[in-house]
Every structure is written in structure tokens, then in C-alpha cells.
Amino acid sequence: MNQVRQVLRRFKFIDNISGLQIFQLMRFTIFLIVSIVFTKSHLTRAEIGSWEMFLFIAGLISFFWVTGIIQSLLPLYHRNKTFRKMGENNSGKSPEIFNAFLLLCFFSLLFFSLGHVIKYNFSVFHFTGNVPYINLLLLYLLLSSPVCLIEYIYLLNNRSYRIVQYGLYTFTAQLVLIITPILLGKDIIWSIWGLLLVTIARWVWLIILLRRYSEMKVSWEFMKEHLYLGAPLIITTLISGSGQYTDGVIVSAVYHDPGMFAWFRYGAKEFPLVLLLANGLSNAMLPEFSTRTMMKESLEKIKLKSKKLMHLLFPIIMVIMLFTKWFYPRLFNPEFHKSAGIFLVYSLLIIPRLLFPQTIIVGRKKTHITFFAALIELALNIPLSLMMIKWGYGIVGVALATFIVYLVSKIFLVGYLWVRMKIKPYEYIPLKVFLIYSVLTSIVFILVDKGIIVI
Q1: Which residues sit opposite 127 in a β-bridge?
Q2: pLDDT tens figures, 72-85
């Protein structure tokens, strides 16, 4: 353990942002490996669909309030009204972290209790009460949400290499405990128990960190202040981040088939490097737009940074698209060839992802505009998805609707900047580079999708 710590400390490039990005990439990689192992095992497509539905429901119920509470904690850490009047804490420990932990526990217990109340009146795959492993699911929901605080405790205390170290240990253990029962020919419920066992180990880790970094002082005033800032973020995250969950709900409701749901879930994945780098750039640039004094320089900076990302990511995506139909049946198994078409459409999301009008708008504290854009996404996604299915596109149509809705949302934000804030698109978007890459990516998509290019 000490040797791993010493090795990680030598990597000077690991800062808080890259540490968190590496952690997220590890999470994605582990679940990708699990997906590959499952498809090549004795498990049926319906059993894999039940596993995916288990993870899907757990994420659907918790993603918005976990994100809202944690994101609102970051600006409140050592910069809040409640504890400012008390002066510096001599112990160096944070009461903010402990009270954020209590809020996460409260929401976990709330949704755990609500889940038990409605568990026999809720259905998936058209069978009432047929929620996969419902009691284990609710237990996982209760335990897994508070442990999301761990990596942010390290982040707030500038322990970037610890984020990577924590991820390395726990994700390795998670991989072993999930896939080992399947490799031994056991039922998938043993993998769920493995997931729960790792979550319990994370709880032990969390308690140790709370004792080390937090002051265990309950403050109702701070929790009210935290929720006052966090409530709009929770609502906005629920609306804007619900696209992938809405897609999953539509597929499960229309087809009532766990196998079809597994097909969709295995394809409905964005290339993680695009998400990580785009979100990293957006978050890093937010403070740059907080004042008008450096607006021109900040616009030029985000234009230059996004241009570099385009030169890196668009060619990678085009190459991946060329090989998608070849590697999907080989990476998983031939039964999952339909997932390749969904992944192809999700690859197109790079086009709206590499536009950053939301960064400027949020940086200028006009968050009500991004809230309205999120409402537009939600209002368009469901009817458009259902129309695409009706027009014969099937589950691929659900993915195509998501791409169209995301693009419309970004166009709305670009239009708002242009009309209301007088910031023209060319001031922060490398238009020529963006348009050329967007057209080339669209052409590659059409050629691969229509089978004109076959690799």
C-alpha cells in the first residue's frame, strides 16, 4: 500500500481535476470490463438486462440529489455564512463535510423508505412488482449514495493522488467481487452481493475520512444554507441529467423486454474521453467568466482550448465509428450487434458536447437560462423518441432523438448569448474547424450506418 502511495506521489501531473477524471475513467473501465465478461459468460440476455436495470434504477433514483448536494458543498467549503462568524477552526477539520454527509444520509434514508412503501406498486418490463432484486436494490441505494462523498473529501483537502489510490483499490476489489461468481458459473445475485460488499468497505473508508477531516458538529443553520444553494442545482440536475434515464424508461416501457433493454444500455454510452475532457474544460473555465473585466480574454481562451479538443477528439471518434460494427460483436458477443447502431448515434453527441455556451452563461450566473434549456430537452425528448419508434427506427430512434434534443438545447444557448448578451458565436467557437469536423463526422456516421463502409 505504501509503495502504491509513493508511486502515485511521483506523478506530478495528477492534480485535483485530473485525479477526479482518472477516478471517473476507472469507474467507466471497470463497468465496461464487467459488461464484456457478462456477455461472454453463461448469463442470458434477460439476466444481463436485470443487472443493467438494477444499476439503472439505483442511478435514476439518486443521481440528481447526490450531484446537487456535492456540487453545492464545493463553493460552501470554508466560504459560508454559518461558520464564518466562528472564525478559523483550530483543529483544521471541516464541519461542512460532516453536515453534507448528514444530508446525504437523510436523502438516502428518505428514498430507501419511499422505495419500501411503493416497491409492490412499481413495475418494469410490464410486470407489476417485478423490479430486479428490489430489497437488495434499496439496500444498495441506502449505502451507496453517501460514499460518493469520499473522492470529494480528498479533493477539498488537495489530496489528488489519494483519489486515484482510493479508486485503484476499490474498483479493483469491485471488479473481482462482481465477475468472480459469474466465472464460477454462479447466479447474478452473487455479483450484486459483491457490489454491496465493496459498498460496505467504502463505508468503513468514509467513516475513517470523516474522523480525520471533518468536525462532527451538527449545524441546522448550515444544512439550511446548504440546501438553499443546493436545491436549484438538484432540480436542474434532475431535468438536464435525466436524458439517459428518460431514454431507458422509454425503452423499458415500450418494449417490456429485459433483453431489448440490455441491447439499448450496452449501446447507449458516450465515449468517456469526450465527456471527461469537455466537462473538465467547462468546469475549469467557469471562474474566468465571473467578471466582465476579462471577458474578451476568456472568450478567446475557451475558443483556443475548445479548438485543441476538437483536433484531438473528432478524429478519435471518427476512427472509432469506422470500427464500431466490427468490434461490438467481438467485444461483447454477436447477440449484441444491435447495440453498435445505438453507440454510433451516441458518438454523434461529440458535436453538441464541444460547444460551450453553457460555460459562459453559468459563469455569468444566469443559471435560470440553463434551467430553461434543460426544460426544453425534457419536453422534446419523450415525444420525439416515441415518434422515432413509431416511424420504424426502433431503439436506435430513441438514441437519435437524444442527439437531436441535445443539439437543439445547445443552439438555444448559442442563440441566447448572441441575441441577449451580444456575444457572437465566432467569439468563443472556432466555427470553421467545428463545422468541418461536424460535417466529416456526420458523413462517416452515414457511410457506416448504411453499410457503405464495412470494416
Answers
A1: 124
A2: 787 677 777 777 65
Q: How confident is the model at residue 128 (pLDDT cuts 50, 70, 90)?
A: very low
Q: What separation in angstroms does the CA of 326 have from each of 322, 329, 346? A: 8, 7, 17
CA 28 to chain centre: 10
Instruction: Compute the radius of gyration of the chain from its Cα atoms.
Output: 23
Residue pointed to by grid coordinates 466537462: 279
Q: 40 near 333, Cβ under 8 Å? A: yes
Residue 316 neighbours by CB under 8 Å, 6+ apart: 271, 273
Residue 31, burial from CB neighbour count under 10 angstroms (0-12, 13-18, 19+): middle
Chain-centre distance for alpha carbon 423: 29
**Cell 436524458 sits at which residue?**
243
Q: Give the contacts of 154 (CB within 8 A, at least 6 positions apart).
A: 19, 160, 162, 163, 166, 209
Cβ-contact 21, 28 below 8 angstroms: no
Closest to 425 measured CA to CA, from 439, 412, 408: 412
Report the DSSP beta bridge partners of residue 128: 123
Q: What are 222's strand-pairing partners?
A: none
Predicted confidence at residue 90, as pLDDT, reads 47
pLDDT in tens, 179-204: 999 999 999 899 999 999 999 999 99
162/45: higher pLDDT: 162
In the structure grid, which three cell numbers stand for residue 18, read together?
A: 485530473
Nearest of 143, 253, 151, 265 to residue 192 by alpha carbon = 143
The strand pairing partners of 123, in sequence order, are 128
Evaluate the CA torsion angle 393, 399, 405, 411 in order and state its sign. negative
Query: C-alpha grid cell for residue 4?
Result: 502504491
When comparing pLDDT for 253 and 431, which is higher? 431
Residue 168 to residue 145: CA distance in whole angstroms: 19
Q: Which pTM does this prediction carry?
A: 0.71
Candidate from 92-106, 323-337, 350-364 with smallest mean pLDDT = 323-337
Among residues 368, 369, 397, which one has the least CA distance to residue 381? Answer: 397
Q: Which amino acid is at 230?
A: G
